[in-house]
Amino acid sequence: MPKLGKAGSLQSRQAIVHSLVHIESWAIDLSWDIIARFGKQESMPREFFTDFVKVAQDEGRHFTLLGKRLEELGSSYGALPAHDGLWESSIATSEDLLARLAIEHCVHEARGIDVLPTTISRFRNGGDKETADLLEKVIYPEEITHCAAGVKWFKYLCLRSKNPAIGDSLASQGSSDRQSGITVEENEEIIKKFHAIVRTHFRGPLKPPFNEEARKAAGFGPQWYEPLAVKDINPRIKCGW
């Protein structure tokens, strides 16, 4: 794997954009996969399909725009090696929709919105206004909505598991706790479930700093992710004091 660098050189800019194109290629597949793999199987409401079709369309557009920009920078997709972390985690969560939503959308995509502002600044400081504008005006705001879709449907599944009769009404009310009538106790249970799933399916702690503003816009606050930034040395042993 080549080092991405800080966008100060053409080679670094090519490597970063190539990495982003590769991420978008997996994101397209995973958006359709979550629909085909889990939609009917989990009896998800129509809005679930609508949300992730929209995500897939966005990711496809991102792939096309970033691929074109990569060619303008003198390279092309496939010219450099790339990691398959997203696909590996999708395999690990292939039988559990809650885990898929938590890891792909609330961990990996959330990490993307954490680092994109810095990436944008690096391109702008390196004199690449075109790439910076593409990331800032198109990719970044839409990735926040993709993270929001994961948060929304994670909450939905947790609440539906306790009261199946309220499922469809919750789905139509969006991701806001107030809008969907989530109580403090229910919210705490949802967050505990999220922590348990991430600790099971994601290796190591989450990496700060966190983009709190973007994460809040996506529907989840620091209580979701800050406890996961602390390495749990031995989760099977309870503290004795």
TrEMBL record:
Leader peptide range in chain numbering: none
Pfam families attached to this UniProt entry: DUF455
Highest taxon, organism lineage: Eukaryota
Protein known as: Ferritin-like superfamily
Organism: Jatropha curcas (Barbados nut)
Taxonomic path: Eukaryota, Viridiplantae, Streptophyta, Embryophyta, Tracheophyta
